[in-house]
Amino acid sequence: MAVTVREATTVTDELVAAFARLLPQLSRSAPPPTKAELTEVVASPATVLLVAEDDPGGAIIGSLTLARFRIPTGVRAWIEDVVVDDAARGRGVGEALNRRALELATAAGARSVDLTSRPSREAANRLYQRLGFEPRDTNVYRYELEG
To answer: pLDDT tens digits, residue range 26-35?
Structure first.
């Protein structure tokens, strides 16, 4: 299967529908984003929303969000919310999305790219390691905000 990865620059009904289909495959607790929320992601200079499509110009079969931001120690890049449609898994979609994100992070001046992945996502973890991501000796903390 040929796959095209592109940056989402406008929010269409097709994109909203794709997230309604894809996001539940990533998270049972997060509701799919609304058109307004996707518009905020697409419009933000700190995020790049990548989508993978069946070639040429077919259905959206995956997505990845790359966050890029400057802090005092340099440009940071973080990959979030990687999801590939169940029906398209094992066909290189996740790899294509990640490789494009790494290219964009490099172009933005980031020296490294971070991501997290649950241990239960075994195929995703194998992919990240195959691409050169290495586990870090760190603690990840979360503070839950109310509301």
So the answer is: 999 999 999 9
CA pair distance 101, 40, nearest whole angstrom: 19
Residue type at position 37: E
Phi/psi of residue 92, nearest 5 degrees: 90, 5
Q: Which residues lie below 8 Å from residue 20, measured CB to CB, with a gap of 6+? A: 32
SS3 76: strand
Give me the sheet containing 47-54, strands edge to edge. Answer: 3-7, 47-54, 60-71, 74-84, 113-114
Backbone torsions φ then ψ of 103, nearest 5 degrees: -60, -45
Q: Compute the 3-state secondary structure of the chain and give helix, strand, coil in percent, each to the nearest 5.
A: 35, 25, 40
Which residue ranges make up each domain of the chain?
3-130
Homologous superfamily of the 3-130 domain (CATH)? Gcn5-related N-acetyltransferase (GNAT) (3.40.630.30)
At residue 137, the pLDDT reads 92
Q: Cα–chain-centroid distance for residue 16?
A: 15
